[in-house]
Amino acid sequence: METRTSPFLPALQLSVALFATAPDAAAALHAALLGAAKAAPEAQARMRYACLDASTLVSRAHIDVALDAAALALAHGTQRCHTREAEVVFRIAAGNNIGDALRTFGLSPTSTHVLLVHLGPAPADGGRSADAQLAHMQALLPGAELLPLEQLGAPHIVDWARVRKAYKLRDLGAGSDTNDAALQRRIRAREIDCVVGAVACKAVM
């Protein structure tokens, strides 16, 4: 798990963790998120996370750019969503429909890799310590394996067909020599640049 502050929101602590989920854990968390919308404020506070399907995230830069865009919008009062967590998901999407963003990038009952993002007070202001925050995240996904954030974008995690559809990318590798490893790496790097660029451009539009 990584914990840091944003230069745009220095009063808040940003915590990000990647998990490989245990069977049924994603489904249980998804159900809990839906239930929290009608729950008491205490229960809602426990679920104040941006829960992302990591199969839609192509690199560390992808999520980092979206997090900075969300923090900047929140700092300037230009956010498009009612909650900080929804703003994070919205900023990852290329379009402006928050419902589509949640359906495409948010946690689903079948997610196998989940990125949890929490924006809350720093420990000095009554927020959780890094250890307590990690324990809280792990309690939401019992049995899940904590993974290094460097695994974001790993080939066994990313669903490129889903990503291309979400960002309206054509398959840059269509018709290419799939046995040419160097060529395939260059194609994938271009696709990643297109995705990250789309998120960055949305932040300034």
From TrEMBL:
Q: Which family does it belong to?
A: Belongs to the CGI121/TPRKB family.
What organism is this sequence from? Answer: Tilletiopsis washingtonensis
Q: Has the keyword Magnesium been applied to this entry?
A: no
Out of the domains of life, which is the source? Eukaryota
- One GO cellular component from the entry? nucleus
Q: Where in the cell is it found?
A: Nucleus
Where is this protein primarily located?
nucleus
Its recorded name reads EKC/KEOPS complex subunit CGI121
